[in-house]
Design goal:
Helix content is about 20%, strand content about 15%. With about 280 residues, it is α+β, with helices and mostly antiparallel strands.
Length: about 280
């Protein structure tokens, strides 16, 4: 009778298991930040392409209107739509943006303020317009806004947008043919449909999520202290939040000079050059 000897398989020792777990933990510690950074970069790139597309819509509009930028008027009899956004760029660009919500929302944004989002950098905005004749309702959800100084004025229009001073007619751009177009913000990331930046003396809000006039609509930490901007010449690039003070917001805006006192939430951000 032959007896078959069985050798018991040797398993992992406790020390070996701890070594394997430690190696996995170390790899995770290295890879997770890299993956998160890659995801954030992908969101920023996608958002940049969206901002670029809105600039294309505006330029197409200008090419169809002798180079004039989006028309602004507060005269109700000239408007096709009812609603708080009816006087803005929205109806003017509608033929280009129908069914284009896919190029309206930055992947880094979430909900509107009414839907519970309190962080300005994560907020989107929503407006509902109603056509005067057909009664069609148009719901717009977006995470991008216009530099309100871009508008051209309807002939005889004497009313200005909120935030503008009495010299607004000499400050608005009105058309696209400027040598400095590559430094003139057209569309950029925002939690509202537009905003007015008056002076480089205007200071940013003290708290990151507190509302303030002027730079407030655009100075939002959406992409690691940067926002994506499409300029009047159609170019697009990401701009550091402190560098917003060096852009040519309106025709009389001074791009050189001292900077405001930066609040705590902006102190660690990259510093722009001192002029």
């Amino acid at each position: 009778m032959f007896m078959k000897s069985c050798k018991k398989d040797k398993g992992f020792t406790l020390i070996e298991l701890l070594v394997v777990i430690s190696v996995i933990a170390l790899l995770m510690a290295i890879l997770v930040p890299v993956l998160n950074k890659a995801k954030a970069y992908a969101r920023q790139v996608i958002c940049m392409s969206y901002v670029k597309q809105w600039g294309v819509y505006s330029i197409l509009y200008a090419e169809s209107n002798q180079g004039k930028t989006v028309l602004f008027t507060k005269k109700d009899d000239l408007l096709e739509w009812n609603g708080s956004g009816s006087k803005t760029w929205m109806p003017k660009l509608k033929k280009y943006i129908d069914a284009e919500e896919k190029v309206a929302l930055c992947p880094s944004t979430t909900r509107t303020e009414n839907e519970g989002e309190s962080r300005l950098a994560k907020q989107i905005w929503q407006e509902t317009l109603t056509h005067k004749t057909t009664r069609e309702k148009w719901v717009i959800r977006n995470s991008i806004g216009i530099n309100n100084w871009i508008y051209s004025l309807y002939p005889g229009e004497n009313k200005k947008l909120s935030g503008m001073d009495s010299d607004f007619k000499n400050k608005i751009w009105g058309h696209t043919h400027y040598k400095s177009a590559s430094n003139i913000p057209l569309f950029l990331e925002s939690y509202r449909w537009g905003g007015v930046v008056n002076s480089r003396d205007d200071e940013p809000r003290i708290k990151e999520n507190a509302r303030k006039d002027s730079f407030d609509r655009f100075c939002i930490d959406r992409h690691n202290a940067h926002v994506n901007i499409c300029f009047l010449d159609g170019s697009v690039r990401k701009v550091g939040l402190k560098f917003l003070w060096n852009l040519k917001w309106h025709r009389k805006y001074k791009t050189r000079g001292s900077y405001p006192t930066w609040p705590k939430w902006m102190l660690s951000m990259k510093e722009p050059p001192r002029h």
